[in-house]
UniProtKB/TrEMBL annotation:
Domain Pyrroline-5-carboxylate reductase dimerisation: residue ranges: 218-312
Any one biological process term the GO annotation gives: L-proline biosynthetic process
InterPro entries: 6-PGluconate_DH-like_C_sf, NAD(P)-bd_dom_sf, P5CR-like_CS, P5CR_dimer, Pyrroline-COOH_reductase
Family annotation (PROSITE patterns): P5CR
Protein's name in the database: Delta 1-pyrroline-5-carboxylate reductase
Keyword list, A-Z: NADP, Oxidoreductase
HAMAP family: P5C_reductase
Organism: Alectoria fallacina
Keyword Transmembrane helix: no
Binding site for NADP(+): L13, G14, C15, G16, K17, L18, T41
SUPFAM superfamilies: 6-phosphogluconate dehydrogenase C-terminal domain-like, NAD(P)-binding Rossmann-fold domains
């Protein structure tokens, strides 16, 4: 079967922590052979193009607000001739791209999308939003906010295609999971989803994901890294207390996480992993009892609940 190689220009509209991670991951993926990035050839609902598609970035434009950010990003990516950084030039930046990855804070996506000239600049393009808590329909509203046209919903949707993607900072090391959501009830051209899918395969695994579960996905993928880092910190501090060098302790914790990650990504349940290590009445069981008495699992559950709730309301002015 033939492979579609599609040269594509990518613009990062806002390039802070997360878009910089995606940009870094994409850059480090470029030397790999295209076959690594083949999107699924077919799904029963015919969402994808029939042939494997490889999105090959030919330019990567990062748009930021402050000149100081622009200077530091230019330095960070000085090794790549594909990267251009622009400060306060969002419309020219969007004009340069085929796929636009919107990565500004939830508080500024509206003015950015309503900038004069943005509506025209987005025509015919795919806008991928990684902005937390902002639905596809709100993004369309923001784009058409200052437009005097009376376009119908379907005319708006044809103007540009908007897809939401949630992923975490481990995109920088191409180890994220990207959750792609289309707006419920809407039919996207297969080429749109295929190109987004194929692009994000460069920074890890990709899944189609219901839009209403975006906040929970963001909590697991981004918040989850932060939550688990608390466990790592506690373990490292404990090991240092026992006389282990901090660096050694960190490496051991990292190796535990890597092992755990492989086990639970395979067939093993978290409880099954505990069962492999702890024997009733044994030393690990004694440590697990301490965690249980401290209600650590319930605290993690509550942290997930609170963060998901807050994420789903990031665009709520009352929050
Ligand atoms: N960080 C994560 O792990 C994570 C996870 C899931 C979802 N998200 C979502 O991803 C989005 C970005 O998060 P982040 O953590 O990367 O935020 P961030 O580090 O604060 O980055 C925001 C970026 O937007 C730029 N920006 C702000 N106003 C702008 C404007 N008017 N024109 C052009 N660029 C502008 C900033 O430029 P300057 O630096 O020049 O001000 C900066 O590059 C948020 O919506 C967040 O909800 C983040």
């Amino acid at each position: 079967m033939s492979v579609h190689i599609i040269p594509t220009k990518i613009t990062f509209l806002g390039c802070g922590k997360l878009n910089t991670a995606i940009l870094s991951g994409i850059l480090s993926s470029l030397p790999d052979p295209p076959s690594t990035f083949q999107a699924p050839t077919y799904t029963p609902n015919e969402k994808f193009l029939p042939n494997p598609t490889v999105i090959t970035p030919t330019s990567l434009t990062a748009c930021v607000h402050h000149q100081s950010t622009s200077t530091s990003l230019t330095q960070t990516f000085s090794h790549s001739p594909l990267v251009t950084v622009l400060a306060n030039e969002n419309v020219p930046g969007v004009q340069r791209g085929d796929i636009i990855i919107l990565g500004v804070e939830p508080s500024v996506y509206r003015p950015v999308l309503a900038e004069p000239g943005m509506l025209d600049a987005l025509k015919g393009k795919t806008l991928v939003s990684i902005v937390g808590g902002v639905s596809v329909s709100k993004l369309y509203d923001a784009i058409f906010h200052s437009s005097p046209t009376s376009l119908t919903t379907s005319e708006r949707e044809k103007h540009c295609h908007i897809v939401r993607v949630t992923l975490g900072p481990s995109a920088a090391v191409r180890a994220s999971v990207s959750l792609i959501s289309e707006e419920a009830g809407r039919r996207y051209p297969p080429a749109v989803l295929t190109s987004v899918y194929s692009l994000f395969m460069r920074v890890g695994e990709v899944k189609m994901w219901p839009e209403q579960l975006q906040a929970a996905g963001a909590t697991m993928l981004a918040g989850g890294l932060a939550f688990l880092s608390v466990a790592v910190e506690g373990m490292v501090e404990g090991a240092v207390g026992e006389g282990v060098e901090r660096e050694e302790a960190l490496q051991m914790a990292a190796s535990c996480l890597a092992g755990l990650s492989k086990l639970v990504a395979g067939e093993e349940s978290p409880g099954g992993v505990r069962g492999k290590v702890a024997t009733p009445g044994g030393s690990t069981a004694a440590g697990l009892e301490v965690l249980e008495e401290g209600r650590v699992k319930e605290l993690y559950r509550e942290a997930l609940r609170v963060t998901t709730f807050r994420t789903s309301r990031l665009d709520d002015p009352k929050e």
